[in-house]
Design goal:
This protein has about 300 residues and is α+β, with helices and mostly antiparallel strands. It has two domains: about 10-110, Phosphorylase Kinase, domain 1, CATH 3.30.200; about 115-295, Alpha-Beta Complex (Aminoglycoside 3'-phosphotransferase, Chain: A, domain 2), CATH 3.90.1200.10. Helix content is about 40%, strand content about 15%. The strands form three sheets. The protein has a five-stranded antiparallel β-sheet with strand order 1-2-3-5-4, with helices on both faces. A hairpin with a 3-residue loop joins β2 and β3 (about 50-55). The radius of gyration is 19 Å and the shape is globular.
């Protein structure tokens, strides 16, 4: 079942043909689809060390290329910025028969995603996550600030989206309570300057090993934003005890923590209804995050 109205089909045989035709040095390597809950790219493993990412949503090829090039630049900037492994960009593929957009190749990172090995009760993982967030924030913004249209700027710019999600969720969630929560969160003032953020610290982007943070995926959104943005991981990834450990380790005041809770709300409120049938795992993640956000009400 398609997740998006304009979703592109990415058959395995098409990927094998594109890889062999455009990168003959890899033509003898096995290519296999990687199952997962991702909503932006179809992922295919090439041999043991590489991963090909094919954007799922249709767009103009030139815009898709600029997006992939920006993702690669962000990934290069993040390489070795912390002790946690991140993918290295390797190549950009061209549109070809059966697929109309550019696509990318990066290194494959070993590990188990947090959707399969839940670190939510691990205080050691919470300490790792705090270290990751501090390391990301320490990267120089080089004078850049948030310029995107997504999460990371002004909370109130998401009012229309949140209202749409609340209407779509009438039969799924406690909408009156959620609407009251958003009313309280949306006007939280912004005080701190932008810092570098991963921007999407959800379970599917986190690699775990033995209850510890082993690596970070989907790093193409690395860039300047509200310091509270990466605190979404507190509610996406952690239960209450480890979440308190994260808060203590990260530091910051009550306002920053509350804005992190607001960004987690903005992200999670759209997941439950939008992916209800097409990606049940992502829908359930949104429901769990919202439960944690509500449980943390002052």
């Amino acid at each position: 079942m398609k997740m998006h109205a304009d979703e592109l089909a990415v058959p395995l045989e098409t990927v094998r043909a594109l890889v062999a035709g455009q990168f003959p040095e890899w033509k003898d390597l096995p290519v296999r689809r990687v199952a997962g809950q991702g909503t932006v790219n179809a992922i295919f493993r090439i041999g043991e060390d590489l991963a090909a990412r094919f954007p799922l949503e249709a767009r103009e090829p030139g815009a898709a290329r600029r997006w992939l090039e920006a993702e690669a630049a962000a990934a290069r900037e993040l390489l070795d910025a912390t002790r946690f492994r991140t993918p290295e960009p390797i190549a950009l593929g061209e549109p070809g028969e059966g697929y109309p957009l550019p696509w990318s190749v990066q290194t494959w990172l070993p590990g188990v995603v947090a959707t399969e090995e839940d670190p939510g009760e691990s205080e050691a993982f919470a300490r790792d996550l705090a270290e990751l967030i501090a390391g990301l924030r320490a990267v120089d913004t080089r004078g850049r600030g948030f310029t995107g249209g997504g999460r990371g700027g002004d909370l109130t710019t998401h009012d229309a989206w949140v209202e749409k999600c609340l209407r779509e969720s009438e039969h799924l969630l406690d909408v009156p309570r959620l609407r009251a929560t958003w009313t309280a969160l949306r006007t939280l003032p912004r005080e701190a300057a932008d810092v570098m953020n991963h921007g999407d610290l959800i379970p599917g982007n986190i690699l775990v090993s033995a209850g510890r943070l082993a690596g970070v995926l989907d790093v193409g959104g690395f860039g300047p934003a509200d310091p509270a943005l990466d605190l979404v991981g507190a509610w996406h990834l952690l239960e209450s005890g480890p979440r308190a450990v994260l808060r203590e380790r990260v530091g910051g005041g009550d306002l920053e923590w509350a804005r992190g809770r607001a960004w987690a709300f903005v992200q999670a409120i759209g997941l439950v209804w939008y992916y209800l049938d097409s990606n049940p795992g992502m829908s359930e993640m949104g429901r769990r995050t919202l439960g944690r956000v509500l449980a943390d009400a002052p």
